[in-house]
Amino acid sequence: MFFFFVGGVEQGAGRVLKEAAGRCLRCGGAADLVETEKVLKLFFVPAWRWKGKDPAYLCRECGFVAPGSLGGGGGEPGTLLPRAERCGACSCAVDPQFRFCPFCGSAL
Protein backbone atom coordinates (compact mmCIF):
# COMPACT_ATOMS: atom_id res chain seq x y z
CA MET A 1 0.00 0.00 0.00
CA PHE A 2 1.32 3.43 -0.95
CA PHE A 3 0.32 6.61 0.93
CA PHE A 4 0.97 10.08 -0.47
CA PHE A 5 0.88 13.06 1.96
CA VAL A 6 1.22 16.76 1.16
CA GLY A 7 1.31 19.25 4.01
CA GLY A 8 3.29 21.94 5.73
CA VAL A 9 3.35 24.93 8.06
CA GLU A 10 3.30 28.45 6.64
CA GLN A 11 3.73 31.80 8.38
CA GLY A 12 1.34 34.58 7.45
CA ALA A 13 0.40 38.08 8.49
CA GLY A 14 -2.69 38.64 10.62
CA ARG A 15 -4.28 41.91 11.62
CA VAL A 16 -2.41 45.23 11.46
CA LEU A 17 -1.25 46.51 14.86
CA LYS A 18 0.25 49.81 13.67
CA GLU A 19 0.24 51.29 10.18
CA ALA A 20 3.47 52.68 8.68
CA ALA A 21 5.43 51.64 11.77
CA GLY A 22 8.74 51.31 9.93
CA ARG A 23 10.57 50.95 6.62
CA CYS A 24 11.14 47.78 4.59
CA LEU A 25 14.61 46.25 4.67
CA ARG A 26 14.37 45.17 1.03
CA CYS A 27 12.77 48.06 -0.90
CA GLY A 28 12.63 50.93 1.64
CA GLY A 29 8.83 51.28 1.40
CA ALA A 30 6.43 51.74 4.31
CA ALA A 31 6.00 48.66 6.52
CA ASP A 32 3.12 47.90 8.88
CA LEU A 33 3.52 46.18 12.24
CA VAL A 34 1.30 43.06 12.05
CA GLU A 35 0.45 40.04 14.17
CA THR A 36 1.87 36.82 12.80
CA GLU A 37 -0.01 33.58 12.50
CA LYS A 38 1.03 30.08 11.57
CA VAL A 39 -1.13 27.94 9.31
CA LEU A 40 -1.02 24.15 9.01
CA LYS A 41 -1.97 23.15 5.48
CA LEU A 42 -2.95 19.63 4.47
CA PHE A 43 -3.18 19.03 0.75
CA PHE A 44 -2.94 22.83 0.22
CA VAL A 45 -6.03 23.49 2.36
CA PRO A 46 -5.65 25.47 5.63
CA ALA A 47 -6.52 23.02 8.41
CA TRP A 48 -5.46 24.83 11.60
CA ARG A 49 -4.33 28.38 12.50
CA TRP A 50 -2.61 29.67 15.63
CA LYS A 51 -1.05 32.98 16.68
CA GLY A 52 2.66 33.51 16.24
CA LYS A 53 4.87 34.52 19.15
CA ASP A 54 6.08 37.94 18.03
CA PRO A 55 4.73 40.65 15.73
CA ALA A 56 6.48 41.32 12.42
CA TYR A 57 6.86 44.12 9.86
CA LEU A 58 5.01 43.57 6.57
CA CYS A 59 6.00 45.75 3.61
CA ARG A 60 3.05 47.27 1.75
CA GLU A 61 4.90 47.34 -1.58
CA CYS A 62 6.93 44.12 -1.89
CA GLY A 63 5.25 41.91 0.76
CA PHE A 64 8.53 41.19 2.60
CA VAL A 65 8.04 40.05 6.23
CA ALA A 66 10.77 41.09 8.70
CA PRO A 67 10.85 40.03 12.37
CA GLY A 68 9.50 42.62 14.79
CA SER A 69 12.70 42.29 16.84
CA LEU A 70 14.53 44.36 14.18
CA GLY A 71 12.52 47.48 15.00
CA GLY A 72 12.86 49.95 17.83
CA GLY A 73 16.30 48.84 19.01
CA GLY A 74 18.48 51.79 19.89
CA GLY A 75 17.18 54.67 17.82
CA GLU A 76 13.76 55.91 16.96
CA PRO A 77 11.05 53.41 17.91
CA GLY A 78 9.47 51.56 15.03
CA THR A 79 12.30 52.01 12.52
CA LEU A 80 14.13 49.06 11.06
CA LEU A 81 17.85 48.75 10.50
CA PRO A 82 19.44 51.79 8.84
CA ARG A 83 20.72 51.52 5.29
CA ALA A 84 24.35 51.35 6.55
CA GLU A 85 23.64 48.00 8.27
CA ARG A 86 22.41 46.37 5.06
CA CYS A 87 24.26 44.81 2.15
CA GLY A 88 24.57 47.17 -0.82
CA ALA A 89 24.13 44.34 -3.32
CA CYS A 90 21.16 42.35 -1.93
CA SER A 91 19.78 44.76 0.74
CA CYS A 92 19.73 42.03 3.42
CA ALA A 93 20.31 42.95 7.08
CA VAL A 94 23.97 42.40 7.95
CA ASP A 95 25.91 42.71 11.20
CA PRO A 96 28.12 45.85 10.91
CA GLN A 97 31.15 43.81 12.03
CA PHE A 98 30.96 41.55 8.93
CA ARG A 99 33.28 42.21 5.99
CA PHE A 100 31.25 40.07 3.57
CA CYS A 101 27.51 39.54 3.20
CA PRO A 102 26.50 36.05 4.46
CA PHE A 103 23.60 35.98 1.97
CA CYS A 104 25.20 36.94 -1.37
CA GLY A 105 28.95 36.94 -0.55
CA SER A 106 29.68 40.47 -1.76
CA ALA A 107 32.16 42.73 0.06
CA LEU A 108 30.60 45.28 2.40
Structural notes for this entry:
- By secondary structure, the protein is mostly beta strands.
- It has no helices and five strands.
- Strands 1, 2, 3, 4 and 5 form a five-stranded antiparallel sheet that branches.
- A hairpin with a 2-residue loop joins strand 2 and strand 3.
- About 6% of the residues have low confidence.
Helix content: under 10%
Helix-strand topology string: EEEEE
**Can you count the beta strands?**
5
Radius of gyration: 17 Å
Secondary-structure content class: mainly beta
Largest sheet: 5 strands, antiparallel
> Low-confidence spans: pLDDT under 50, at least 5 residues?
72-78
Report the portion of residues in β strands. 35-45%
Mean pLDDT: 80
* Molecular shape: flat
The end-to-end distance, rounded to whole angstroms, is 55 Å
- The DSSP helix count reads 0
Keywords:
108 residues, mainly beta, 5-stranded antiparallel sheet, 5 strands, flat
Q: What are the SSEs and their pairings?
A:
Layout: E1 7-23, E2 30-42, E3 45-51, E4 56-59, E5 65-67
Antiparallel strand pairs: 1-2, 2-3, 2-4, 4-5
Please sum up the structure shown.
This protein has strands spanning 7-23, 30-42, 45-51, 56-59, 65-67. The chain has 108 residues and is mainly beta.
